[in-house]
Amino acid sequence: MPLKAKDLRNMELKDLKEKLDELSEDLLKHKAESRMGTIKNTSAIRNVKKDIARVLTVMNEKKASISSSKSNVKTNNEAKLSKK
Protein backbone atom coordinates (compact mmCIF):
# COMPACT_ATOMS: atom_id res chain seq x y z
CA MET A 1 0.00 0.00 0.00
CA PRO A 2 1.53 3.33 -1.01
CA LEU A 3 2.38 5.87 1.63
CA LYS A 4 0.25 8.98 1.80
CA ALA A 5 2.03 12.34 1.76
CA LYS A 6 -0.49 13.60 4.31
CA ASP A 7 0.56 10.89 6.77
CA LEU A 8 4.23 11.55 6.08
CA ARG A 9 3.83 15.27 6.80
CA ASN A 10 2.60 14.40 10.30
CA MET A 11 5.81 12.49 11.04
CA GLU A 12 8.92 13.95 12.63
CA LEU A 13 12.11 14.34 10.60
CA LYS A 14 13.79 11.56 12.60
CA ASP A 15 10.92 9.17 11.83
CA LEU A 16 11.10 10.08 8.15
CA LYS A 17 14.79 9.18 8.08
CA GLU A 18 14.00 5.81 9.64
CA LYS A 19 11.24 5.25 7.07
CA LEU A 20 13.67 6.15 4.29
CA ASP A 21 16.19 3.59 5.57
CA GLU A 22 13.46 0.95 5.76
CA LEU A 23 12.30 1.68 2.21
CA SER A 24 15.88 1.60 0.89
CA GLU A 25 16.33 -1.86 2.38
CA ASP A 26 13.05 -2.98 0.80
CA LEU A 27 14.21 -1.67 -2.57
CA LEU A 28 17.47 -3.61 -2.34
CA LYS A 29 15.56 -6.75 -1.39
CA HIS A 30 13.15 -6.39 -4.30
CA LYS A 31 15.97 -5.72 -6.77
CA ALA A 32 17.80 -8.83 -5.57
CA GLU A 33 14.64 -10.89 -5.99
CA SER A 34 14.21 -9.47 -9.47
CA ARG A 35 17.74 -10.44 -10.47
CA MET A 36 17.23 -13.96 -9.16
CA GLY A 37 13.88 -14.24 -10.89
CA THR A 38 11.96 -14.95 -7.70
CA ILE A 39 10.01 -11.69 -7.47
CA LYS A 40 6.26 -12.21 -7.49
CA ASN A 41 5.08 -8.61 -7.73
CA THR A 42 7.13 -6.83 -10.36
CA SER A 43 5.47 -3.49 -9.66
CA ALA A 44 6.81 -3.56 -6.09
CA ILE A 45 10.09 -1.99 -7.20
CA ARG A 46 8.28 0.93 -8.83
CA ASN A 47 6.02 1.39 -5.80
CA VAL A 48 8.95 1.44 -3.37
CA LYS A 49 10.77 3.99 -5.54
CA LYS A 50 7.70 6.23 -5.50
CA ASP A 51 7.42 5.88 -1.71
CA ILE A 52 11.08 6.86 -1.37
CA ALA A 53 10.42 9.91 -3.54
CA ARG A 54 7.46 10.88 -1.35
CA VAL A 55 9.53 10.59 1.82
CA LEU A 56 12.37 12.64 0.33
CA THR A 57 9.91 15.30 -0.85
CA VAL A 58 8.38 15.67 2.61
CA MET A 59 11.83 15.72 4.22
CA ASN A 60 12.93 18.53 1.88
CA GLU A 61 9.71 20.45 2.58
CA LYS A 62 10.33 20.20 6.32
CA LYS A 63 13.96 21.27 5.95
CA ALA A 64 12.93 24.22 3.79
CA SER A 65 10.30 25.33 6.27
CA ILE A 66 12.81 25.13 9.11
CA SER A 67 15.40 27.18 7.23
CA SER A 68 12.82 29.74 6.10
CA SER A 69 11.55 30.18 9.65
CA LYS A 70 15.13 30.72 10.84
CA SER A 71 15.74 33.32 8.14
CA ASN A 72 12.43 34.96 9.01
CA VAL A 73 13.55 35.28 12.63
CA LYS A 74 16.83 36.84 11.49
CA THR A 75 14.94 39.30 9.30
CA ASN A 76 12.68 40.31 12.19
CA ASN A 77 15.68 40.80 14.47
CA GLU A 78 17.46 42.89 11.83
CA ALA A 79 14.34 45.03 11.42
CA LYS A 80 14.19 45.65 15.16
CA LEU A 81 17.85 46.66 15.22
CA SER A 82 17.48 49.05 12.29
CA LYS A 83 14.56 50.85 13.97
CA LYS A 84 16.72 51.81 16.93
Automatic annotation (TrEMBL):
Residues 6-33 form a coiled coil. It comes from the Archaea. GO terms for molecular function: structural constituent of ribosome. The keyword Transcription does not apply. Residues 63-84 are annotated as: Disordered. The keyword Ribosomal protein applies. GO terms for cellular component: ribonucleoprotein complex; ribosome. Pfam families: Ribosomal_L29 (PF00831). One of its GO terms (biological process) is translation. Keywords: Coiled coil, Ribonucleoprotein, Ribosomal protein. Residues 65-84 have a biased composition (Polar residues). Belongs to the universal ribosomal protein uL29 family. This is Large ribosomal subunit protein uL29. It comes from Acidianus manzaensis. The lineage of its organism: Archaea, Thermoproteota, Thermoprotei, Sulfolobales, Sulfolobaceae. The gene is rpl29.
